[in-house]
């Protein structure tokens, strides 16, 4: 074999060994780094991202507000220009309006960029905080994903239609008379009048509106279930796990529970409430019930420094 070819093969083998060694070294460094980043570090980074997200959101609102003000000025200048008879002044106002209109586009783009940054920072910050929360509360958490409905083979009827409303003007009980029409059914009308946004955040781990609290909510698991799920048309219990932004339990809060179904003119069929604090930061909610499938919003109002902060959960059954 040619000596030059042998030398090239030898050099290639050496390079391959070096690359493998370097890859193993990088993997070891990354593994060691992940060990060094503890829960406290993750929480600190998450908090910084979430606060930066709020700042970006406020900046975006100010920028968009300024863009709207400039647009009004543009409209005013153009309206004035149309009323003038002096062509020179008309030309000057038109040029000024065009220059301002260009500024509107720039301000709008800047506002959109800030809003996107805010969304990205918030999303990643919440992911990190969720990770830290799960690590710290892992012994208590039974549900890791979204809240789901217990599968059922029973026909689903919306609005409890076989039970007459308390109001005399509302429809009476459904009658069994009548013939079925091919291709048509009223068996599951519950999603009508609902326009579910996409994507809809249905995570069971959420930050409060004013970012004072972090929380996880889940139905209390039945002994026959592998994971907590929601029964339809049955009163059941939930657990609310409440922490501050350091994932530390928040105790002694008088929490109010609210719920409604967007697109429908009704709330929950019951009046659920927090009955006790099972352990620090873990609250028992009794009286939960869903009478129809679809998109529900469950909110928890939590007292905070003389005011109220709210945590909202989207539940799609």
UniProtKB/TrEMBL annotation:
Q: Where is the YtkA-like domain?
A: 243-299
Q: Which residues form the signal peptide?
A: 1-28
Write the record's keywords in alphabetical order, separated by commas: Signal
Specify the protein name: FixH family protein
């Amino acid at each position: 074999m040619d000596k030059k070819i042998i030398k090239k093969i030898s050099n290639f083998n050496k390079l391959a060994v070096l690359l493998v060694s370097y890859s193993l070294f990088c993997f070891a460094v990354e593994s060691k780094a992940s060990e060094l980043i503890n829960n406290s570090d993750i929480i600190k980074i998450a908090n910084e991202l979430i606060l930066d997200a709020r700042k970006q959101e406020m900046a975006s609102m100010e920028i968009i507000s300024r863009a709207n003000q400039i647009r009004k000025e543009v409209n005013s200048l153009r309206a004035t220009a149309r009323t003038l008879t002096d062509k020179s002044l008309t030309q000057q106002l038109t040029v000024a309006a065009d220059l301002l209109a260009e500024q509107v586009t720039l301000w709008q783009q800047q506002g959109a960029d800030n809003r996107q940054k805010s969304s990205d920072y918030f999303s990643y910050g919440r992911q990190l905080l969720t990770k830290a929360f799960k690590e710290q509360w892992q012994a208590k958490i039974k549900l890791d994903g979204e809240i789901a409905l217990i599968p059922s083979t029973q026909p689903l009827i919306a609005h409890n239609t076989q039970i007459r409303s308390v109001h005399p003007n509302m429809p009476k009980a459904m009658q069994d008379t009548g013939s079925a029409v091919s291709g048509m059914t009223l068996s599951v009308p519950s999603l009508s009048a609902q326009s579910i946004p996409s994507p809809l955040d249905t995570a069971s781990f959420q930050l409060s509106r004013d970012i004072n609290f972090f929380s996880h909510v889940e139905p209390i698991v039945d002994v026959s279930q592998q994971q907590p799920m929601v029964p339809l048309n049955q009163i059941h219990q939930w657990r609310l796990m409440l922490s501050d932004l350091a994932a530390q339990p928040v105790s002694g809060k008088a929490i109010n529970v609210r719920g409604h179904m967007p697109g429908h003119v009704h709330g929950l069929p019951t009046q659920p409430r927090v009955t006790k604090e099972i352990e620090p930061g873990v609250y028992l909610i009794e009286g939960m019930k869903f009478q129809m499938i679809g998109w529900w919003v469950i909110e928890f109002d939590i007292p905070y420094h003389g005011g109220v902060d709210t945590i909202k959960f989207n539940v799609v059954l």
